[in-house]
Amino acid sequence: MNVLVVGGAGYIGSHCVRQAVAAGHRVVVLDDLSQGHPAAVPAGVPFVRFDMADEPNVRLVLREQAIEVVMHFAGLTNVGESVRQPERYHEHNVGRTKKLLDAMLAEEVRRMVFSSTCATYGVPEQMPMTENLPQHPINPYGQTKLDVERTLGHLAISEGFSFAAFRYFNAAGAAADGSIGEDHFPETHLIPLAIAAALGRRPPLQVFGDDYPTPDGTCLRDYVHVDDLAAAHLAVLPRLAAPGARLYYNLGTGVPRSVKEVLASVERVTGRAVPHVVVPRREGDPPELFASADKARAELGWAPRYVELDAIVETAYRWHLARPQGFAS
Question: Any bridge partners for residue 114, and if so which?
Fold first, then answer.
């Protein structure tokens, strides 16, 4: 298929681009580089740099490249920042996505794979988390993703728009060959922060609370490898052929890992201690979040290849060791 990957120079998007090219799809990347990196885009893949809200230019790309499906990864994702800047998050994640959708509808492109989040559930009513749980976000980031999900649902009914919304859990890891990986500024994800602390590249890691009602007192989260996330995006494409398809999937391993377990894994992989200090809990952090991905397994034949935490951490370590300054290295 002819695939436009919006945000294809970013962390998850760039891994998806590589897999899509390897699978034989013709890929075009659109990214404004506010967070992405041109070096993450494979050589030979057409790349256009402008905002996804630039409707005339988006329409031109859709038309000239005969795009059949859009994969949408572009968005702001820092939960804490969203609390401080809710209007910015709404304008970027919701307002600009609506402009992208307007361009798609004008050019008769009615298929999208959308990068959503488990944050749409808020504090879940049960574990593991299934797709039919009530969605009550507790931060603006999760709310913006839910707003887009609902907009897509309305378009499915009114326009025959077909979409899949993937609710990610904690994306982690890097390409197995160490060529691309996480490069955020500021970095907020636990595994790269722990690796940087172990390598002496940052101050001791802050562990937010060790008094949760969990086996070791620290939060439990579901870490899913970035390449496994990308694989799901390709597996869902055939299911978007039917007009008006509305598909929702959780993507996680289903295995909860505590903060202390992550630190222990980083220490095993790196052979170095992870300097850290325990600080008070962050407001709004649930004790545990982990997925039931049974629906994705049953309907897409998808299953994570990286299940062991050490295997995920090892790919991340390989990337950060080789690229101490990320893509600027």
Answer: 72, 165
